[in-house]
Amino acid sequence: MTTKQRVLAFLEKNKGTAISGQELADTLKISRTSIWKAINLLKEEGYAIEAITNKGYCLSASSDLLSAEAIRPFLLPELKDRPFHIFKTTESTNNEAKKIIVEQANTEAIVLTEEQTKGKGRLGRFFYSPPKTGIYMSLILKPQMTTMDATLITTAAAVAVCLAIEKITKKKPKIKWVNDIYLDGYKISGILTEAVTNFENGTIETIILGIGLNFRMPLEGFPAELQSIAGSLLSTENPETTRNELIAEITNQFHHIYQQIETREYLEAYKERCFVFGKKIDFRQGKQEFEAIPLDIDQQGGLIVKMENGEQRTLSYGEITIKRPFNKENKK
User: Concatenated DSSP letters for 235-288?
Assistant: First the structure.
């Protein structure tokens, strides 16, 4: 840990409280000059640190720049040593994760960025990712599962995001099968899972789990083409909640489900939050379009539907596109 990281970790732990330079120096066992240099570096990076006469340095309680030092205190003990890779801006965290896998093939890690310039959604769609108002993260996983079971990762992540939001904010998000999270009728989060597969034995070597979440409203609002679709978790800044805390809770919730994913127990929580059942949907499979009514979720996360002719079919993740989101009736 560098001096700057040690100072930041201490300030994050005491956020909103003034800490004297001498106390910092004594606690961290470094010189006052080193403290001063570290504070200035953090200020240059955008941290809201105030120097209060006769009291010391204070990191603003509303400070929410992404940092490992702010996230680790909220992580489960078994996750606290997980490596972090944090960027100010990048094309997409999933792309960065792929680069990391090449260099560190056997390492599970967490990738974060303040902004994505080419955020990715399913089927090549674009995920709008402006700076400082969203959560854009990828988890690098080393699962012991087959390609068939890997489809469960997306549904598990959807449940983890919902559980984390419910715990931190008390809000009640819903799931649109298979990978979108809605709140008050607007999409606030999307999930993109990509796998590196060993085709010889049919196993998964690495899974990259990408999660994008609109934490606050963008400063300039959403682009015109998204205004009727996209929403955010919080309409304004909430000093009781930070992106760092929610990132940690999403990671914790997913880890808990992931450790026992083969039991499929979490699928009940998925069904409880999935708002598509019993409503007509339009979906496209290849070049054909169909209408159906969703009935249930199968043990692999597939959507069981009743077709217009009464036939039951199971729609698999990745092979279809739901065109009608039928979310309007859920708006408040």
Answer: SS--TT--HHHHHHHHHHHHHHHHTTGGG-THHHHHHHHB--TTS-EEEEETTE
Q: What is the pTM of this model?
A: 0.92
Q: How far apart are CA 266 and CA 37, in angstroms?
A: 48
Which phi-psi region, left, alpha or beta, contains residue 222 (left: φ > 0; alpha: ψ -120 to 50)? Answer: beta
* Euclidean distance between CA atoms 279 and 142, whole angstroms: 37
Please, which residues have CB within 8 angstroms of residue 228's CB and are 6 or more apart in sequence?
none
Residues in the chain: 332
Q: Angle, nearest 10°, between helix axes 21-28 and 3-13?
A: 120
CA 239 to chain centre: 20
- pLDDT tens, residue by residue, 262-313: 999 999 999 999 999 998 988 887 788 899 999 999 999 999 999 999 999 9
Asked whether the predicted pLDDT for residue 332 surpasses 50, the reply is no
- The two tokens of residue 45 are 């990076």
In this prediction, residue 331 carries a pLDDT of 45
Q: What is the pLDDT of residues 145-197, one digit of tens each?
A: 877 777 899 999 999 999 999 999 989 999 999 999 999 999 999 999 998 88
Cα of first residue to Cα of last residue in the chain, in angstroms, is: 47
Angle, helices 243-258/152-169, rounded to nearest 10 degrees: 140
Query: Using CA atoms, how far apart are residues 30 and 115, in angstroms rounded to an integer?
Result: 34
pLDDT of residue 321: 66
